[in-house]
Amino acid sequence: xxxxxxxxxxxxxxxxxRILNLFIKSGRNLCVCELMDALKLPQYTVSKALGxxxxxxxxxxxxxxxxxxxxxxxxxxxxxxLFTFLNNILITDLFLExxxxxxxxxxxxxxxxxVVGIIPEEDLLKLIKGKTEA
Amino acid sequence: xxxxxxxxxxxxxxxxxRILNLFIKSGRNLCVCELMDALKLPQYTVSKALGxxxxxxxxxxxxxxxxxxxxxxxxxxxxxxLFTFLNNILITDLFLExxxxxxxxxxxxxxxxxVVGIIPEEDLLKLIKGKTEA
DNA sequence: CCAATATATGCAATTTTTTACATATAGTCA
DNA sequence: TGACTATATGTAAAAAATTGCATATATTGG
Lengths: 134, 134
Hints:
2 copies of one chain form a homodimer.
Chain A: H1 2-11, H2 14-26, E1 30-31, H3 32-39, H4 43-55, E2 59-64, E3 67-72, H5 77-89, H6 93-106, H7 121-133
Antiparallel strand pairs in A: 1-3, 2-3
The structure holds a DNA duplex (30 and 30 nucleotides).
């Protein structure tokens, strides 16, 4: 019961739902700085939200150098059911904008790894512009 | 988004999950006094929890005299998905005891209507004993 | 070792939720 | 009408969650 309550509490927050949506829709593993840019939220907000979701048992992590890649924990059957359910109900304009920003951010990966850390939005947009025009 | 958050917040409470479980597992409409006995909780707690769930759009009500029958609102597709999901994950010993007490309480219905209001537990158990022995 | 960087966390102020009680409302029946 | 009963709600105190900032940790590369 405590476990179930912890999961629903984790889902009762806009930032955390936006994060979950990005993982569910993209099907990818993502690091904190990529989420920061997709959500346009500060580092501590994203880290804290991810921590809550991981504590609730919804995510696993893999560390590569200073980067940490989060991914949905789909080993648990109940989690899989949850992600399927969320995939059906998380449909909002706000989410679409997150998804577009994430797609652009992922253009900057090399060998499927994040190589761009925390940089000013202005610089980020220039990098992305370079990629889309190439 | 606000609507989704309201639903998850409604699900983030033990009493409200226990109530939802009883409706999902029994498939019936139930009134406040029946839930009080199944959950062993005071009237105001049950009423308030039902109010929260109804506000979140998960229940509809039908009034018959002073009795109010609550039922799951299955017209909404998202609600149906949610109830299916909950049916899979709400499995706990605590729920089993609730379900047994509810089944006993429902033995006291006549023509599928609740005819026993708020009475002391001692009296309730006597009534139920009468029914099960008959 | 040092500087730089990606991520995590501790904390205090604020906001939100819960809880328990008292009381209100509304319908029934004498 | 008035007593009775099923249900709803207002409220104040307590508990819990969120927010923003500052700072800590840990890894890399020079």
